[in-house]
Amino acid sequence: MFRAGLFLTGVVAGGIACAASEARAQSVRYDCLFDSDRSGLDADISFHANTGGTLIGNWDEFDNPSGTRTKPGFFGGFGERENLPVDVSFDFALGGPSRSASAGAFRLRINPRRERVRLSRLEADLLADGPLILPAELTLETDTFRTRSPDSLFPGDVPITLPLGEIALTELRLVQTEDAAVGTLSRIEGDRYAFEVILIVQVGGRVSVLENDFELPPTPVPLPLTGEVVAGPLFAQVISVQPIDLSQAQNPELELPEFPLDLPTILPPGQTAHLLMNLVLQEIGATFQGELRFEAEGVRQGP
Fold first, then answer.
1. For the chain, what are the domain ranges?
2. What's the pLDDT at 207?
3. Nearest-angstrom CA–CA distance, 295 and 4
4. How far does Cα 107 stand from its chain's mean position?
């Protein structure tokens, strides 16, 4: 009887130990929030916007009779009231190194026994600390044209590059599009694991050019993520440092509001022609190359 009791006690204890071990081996879910102080984008960012249209002098017979007048071509008469449009292409470019904080959330489920990880519901604001202000320049190409007030010749097919000041990237977001991405999990030591997973995300944003806001429409791209997770009984720490190389573009064919442009004269140099630009935005695009860092704390869900 005594031996039977010991045997039964041993079976129960062994069963409890096995059940506890099995429970620890099952998948565990953590809902994670980014640490904005430690998460961010450190990258070279570049934008371009290509336009086409016309330029014309700001002369007006009544409101601005001393303004600049324009006329296409090398030769020919230039009437006292002539002010004719000139074909032009007008391209913006901006960019440079930049750093920004990131905020967001995701759900992480790990299964150490099966060496598997599932990542879902990822949403990230890559400009959590505000817009990025980047230096910009423009390149202008025109047909040959002449001006009056001042008198000058602008030879065609000679690109003119001018500083444009600063342009703001006001929004940049990552949103996971699939229900969940499944990857691999491998134990490093104790409750510390390495993971690898490839997500499909949409990258979208907004840029402000010449007091006009333009949307960078969400574009699906693959985003590989590698990192480490320390899976505690109540909380988890997740770290991922990942190279990023993303590009996107669109063709809006959007008519821009007329805006003034002061252009230094070419032949002879030293004066300024006062012009009005009438343009259509034909293409706008962006490229991001650098490093994306996520650090997050997860709260365990369920038993």
1. 27-301
2. 78
3. 54
4. 23
Q: Are 154 and 71 in contact (CB under 8 A)?
A: no
- Taking residues 156-174, report their average pLDDT: 82
- Rounded CA-CA distance 118/130 in Å is 31
> What is the spatial distance between Cα 97 and Cα 290, in angstroms, rounded to a whole number?
9
Question: Is residue 158 packed enough to be buried (19+ CB in 10 Å), middle (13-18) or exposed (0-12)?
Answer: exposed
Q: Report the percent of the chain where pLDDT is more than 70.
A: 89
Q: CA distances (Å), 130 to each of 95, 99, 125, 169, in order?
A: 17, 11, 10, 9
- The edge-to-edge listing of strands for the beta sheet with 69-72 is 69-72, 145-148, 152-154
Q: Running DSSP on this structure, what letter comes out for residue 2?
A: H
User: Taking all residues of the chain, what is their mean pLDDT, rounded to a whole number?
Assistant: 86
Torsion of CA 51, 54, 59, 62, to 10 degrees: -100
Q: In this structure, which amino acid lies at residue 80?
A: E
Map tokens 């590989």 to a residue.
Answer: 224
